[in-house]
Amino acid sequence: MKIIDILKMHDKGVSFEFFPPKTESGMDSLVSTVKILKAYKPLYASMTYGAIGSDQNKTKEATYKLIEEKDLTVMPHLTCVGASADTIKNLLHEYRQNGIENIMALRGDPPAGTINFDFKSQALCYAKDLVKYIKGLDHFCIGVAVYPEGHIETKSLEEDIEYTKQKIDAGAHFAVTQMFFDNAHFYNFLDRADKKGIKIPILPGIFPLTDIDKLKKFCLVSRTTIPKKIENEMARFRHRPEDMEKAGREITINQCRDLIKHGHKRLHFFTFNKANTIKNILKGIS
Ligand code: FAD
Fold this sequence. Notes:
The chain has 286 residues and is an alpha/beta fold. β1, α2 and β2 form a beta-alpha-beta unit. The model has no long low-confidence stretch (mean pLDDT 96). The site of flavin-adenine dinucleotide has 22 residues, from β3, α5 and α6.
């Protein structure tokens, strides 16, 4: 089923993002995780696409594995950076043949450590070019990524929302946000989007807080800020990982409660393939 149709029918619910495991045992463990999380009747599940240089076929394998699960709409992510037009065309054709109806269309990042990567030399330069291409196939429902604090390469929030609008106008049906830890960023982004005439559903991306030091590394490369209060609250348990996780869980639960209170009842979780972390958060917000 197309995710946009699922979203039209449900004004509340959760969706789960997984990453494709590298090994067979990782795949078994992913399937177990999905079986557990299926109890929450997710709106859909998505599978990330590896960066250039990684085995991008793993996304396909993991996607096919998950569609064996009954009653689960699975959406693979696809990035256009580093991919030839033929690779993208063939992959989308194969997905279509295998009953996939939804694609998360992304530009992706250049290989780590690359300076001044020439995006313009790519077959498809920006996510909006991929969206336009997929839209032209007239088969898929298309999701895109949006950035409450602005994408790291943009100079201003005005520039960010302008490019976001272009990407959505190219044919995106819904969007999922980058992680954020101060809901004000999300609410302000929604205001900017509304003023710009963006009307598609935008799901908040929830990053379960577990380890402040790992999180700081993620945030450095994604222009996501961590409020000092959250950093301090977690950092005091630096030598007690279980307590840090507990503190992080409470913060994430409060973040979700605030979103729900403000009417955002559809939450997208970056699961990191960990069933228990997500289960505990969902228990806390139910
Ligand atoms: P774009 O929308 O193309 O934007 C990239 C940059 O180009 C932005 O700064 C934008 O403002 C700018 N831009 C856009 N149009 C123009 C223009 N016309 N002129 C000048 N500048 C322009 N990465 C992966 O590798 N695999 C994944 O599975 C994956 N999943 C993700 C899921 C979510 C929910 C999110 C938020 C991100 C995900 N990413 C993933 C990361 C993503 O690939 C990176 O953030 C990447 O840097 C940007 O991708 P994009 O699709 O947002 O690109």
